[in-house]
Structures are given as C-alpha cells and as structure tokens.
C-alpha cells in the first residue's frame, strides 16, 4: 500500500480481509529482516497495481523509486499489470496518456478503466475495472505461463459398456470437468490431447480430441498417446466392469430374472502411473463416503502423483453439475477448493498441478 492508499484504508483492514501481511514501507528494519523489497520482488509471480493513480503511472514511466511500490516495479522480473483509476479529466490529459503509452511500450499490461459515474460526480472513463474482471485477467495470465511447452493428456466423460446393440452400462459423467481441464491446460500453454467418452460437449478449439466409447477403447487411445505426454489427468468416469459378453442381437425380454456377468476393466490410470517412464499422473476420486480415506488409498495403491477427490451423488457438484468442489491430495500435502464453477476450478487445479509437476522435476534434476 502506498502512502495515499493508507489515507483511504488501513493496512489492518487489508490484512484482515486478505489474510496476508501488508507491506507499506520501503525500508524498515523488520521488513528488511523478514522480507525486504528485493525479496518481495523475487517472490512475486505477477505485480498488479490496482488502483493505479495518475501519479503512480507518472512515477513508473519515469523510473522514480521513492517508495515501496515504485521500487518494486523497478525490481521485479515478472509481468506487470496496471488497473488505472482516476478522474475522467485526469485520464484524458495528454501527459497521463503519454505516461501510459510509455509503460505499455515497456511491456506493462493495461487492465483498462471503465466508463461511468465517478466518486467525484463526473461521468466518463476512469473508474477502475471491476475487481472480478481484474482477477479473471490475472488468473488467465498466471495460467498462461505455467504449462508452456508441456504435453498434457486428459480423459473425460463416461464410458459405455455395451450389453447388446441398443443397451449399455454407463454413468452420469457429463465430461464438463475434463473438458474444462482441457481448456485450462490449453490456456496454460500446454499441448493438449483429450480422450473423451460420449458427451454432448464440443472439444475446445486447439485441443486434439480422440473420441471413444468403451473402457477398452479409452485404454487403447490413452496408451497410444501416453508416450508423448508429460502430464496425465484421468478425469473420466471409466467403467470398472464391462459385460463379459456383448450380445450381437437385442436381448429379448423373456425370463423373470436375469444375471449379468461382468469383468473388471483395465485400470487405465494405474497402468499409466506404473509405466517405467510414467508421466506426472493425476487421478480423480469420485466418492460417496469416506472421501479422504478412499482418495488417499487411490493415491498410494495406484502410485499417483496427485489425486483430486470429489463427492458424487450429492445435490451440489460432482457429476453433471456446472460446479464442483475438490480436495486434492499428494504425498506431502493437500489443498481444498470450495464449490465453484468447473471452469474456474479447472484453472486453479491446473495451476496446482503445474506447481507440483515443476517441484517434482526440480527435485529430480537437483538430486
Ligand atoms: O464429467 P462431469 O459430469 O463433469 O463429472 C466430473 C467427475 C465427477 C466425473 C470427475 O470430477 C471425476 O471424479 N472423475 C473420476 C470418476 C471416477 O471414475 O472415479 P473413480 O474413483 O471410480 O476412479 C478413480 C480414478 O481411476 C479416476 O481418475 C478414473 O478416471 C480412473 N479409472 C477408473 C477405472 C478404470 N478402469 N480406469 C481408470 O483410469
């Protein structure tokens, strides 16, 4: 927070609302001991200045470094975003526009102010963009960098196990979670292959889609693609059992009772995760009870790098819904994502996967 910001809101308010420490001073003995401005600059993945006043734009464009914010701007090596907010007349002043242009030429990205009624009563351009759209922009950027150049293979949707030419055993998966992950991985810079069971969704443009119907077909498609991938995410609800015999003609309704003989399908995820050159393997766990216990069992038994556990068969989230909540487990930690839109959840999950993937590779390469 700059000195001007402190005149509007106290650091305590920001600290309480964000749950994070607030930095205000360039040089304080405690700050230098704990996290000085250079450490802060190295730590940051993105620098977002919101609101960015006309004064801040002027200072940054001229390289002034007389407070924590302007010094950070000079010290960071990460993408910088400004979300200007000022009176409409100040926004239109040629010197403000000139300062802004200079910053844009230096690679700073603009989250443009909006038009409307301003705090001072004027009407025009200068209102800071809505916080939600600022967050969306920043998350997009965060995501764009994390999987650059990586190859990601994702399964999605249900499988259908045929009983005869007209009937099959399947489940309620809509493919929404897997398709959202494919979109997010693509936006994160990855080359994405999506192996999809039958769903009524369009594969995101830019994703290589392979359409299958049965668990056996999904397994074959995954095994063909897996040698080329860095990360495998099994979001599909693959049938665990398939009819021993799929009748060539429609089964007639005769007996009062009938029995189906089912055979276990191949566990695609476990097979992939146990390959000698296995990719970073992420499974899902769809549970109706003992979420954590069952998810951890899958993590260890299938030798996964991560497992994303969700409740299914409940009112909210899981199958079919546009929303979901997840608790993700790995060997040394876990993270919970509250109920949210699957598209947003997917972006956050991809980010977490990228972080864990990079940590594993960093550890491997420095061992
Ligand atoms: O498609 P949506 O409607 O959006 O719903 C999303 C979802 C609930 C389907 C998704 O979030 C999810 O949980 N997917 C996994 C469903 C599942 O089959 O879970 P499971 O606990 O039965 O299987 C564990 C893991 O093993 C999964 O990663 C699954 O893909 C994999 N598996 C299972 C059986 C098998 N034969 N091969 C596998 O690879």
Summarize the structure.
This protein has 367 residues and is α/β, with parallel strands linked by helices.
Name the descriptors.
367 residues; alpha/beta; Rossmann fold; 2 domains; eight-stranded mixed sheet; three-stranded parallel sheet; 23% strand; binds ligand PMT
Write the layout of secondary structure elements.
Layout: H1 3-8, H2 11-18, H3 29-35, H4 37-43, E1 47-52, H5 54-61, H6 68-75, E2 80-84, H7 88-92, H8 94-105, E3 109-110, E4 114-117, E5 123-127, H9 131-146, E6 151-156, E7 161-162, E8 168-169, H10 176-187, E9 191-196, E10 208-211, H11 215-225, E11 231-234, E12 241-243, E13 262-264, H12 268-273, E14 280-287, H13 291-301, E15 306-311, E16 323-330, E17 333-341, H14 342-366
Parallel strand pairs: 1-2, 2-3, 6-9, 6-11, 9-10, 11-14, 14-15
Antiparallel strand pairs: 4-5, 7-8, 12-13, 15-16, 16-17
Helix pairs in contact: 4-6, 5-8, 9-14, 10-14
Ligand PMT is lined by residues 155, 157, 173-178, 215, 234-238, 240, 265, 267-269, 283-286, 298, 310, 312, 318-320.
Main sheet overview: 8 strands, mixed
- Work out the strand percent: 15-25%
Helix content: 25-40%
- Strand order within the widest beta sheet: 10-9-6-11-14-15-16-17
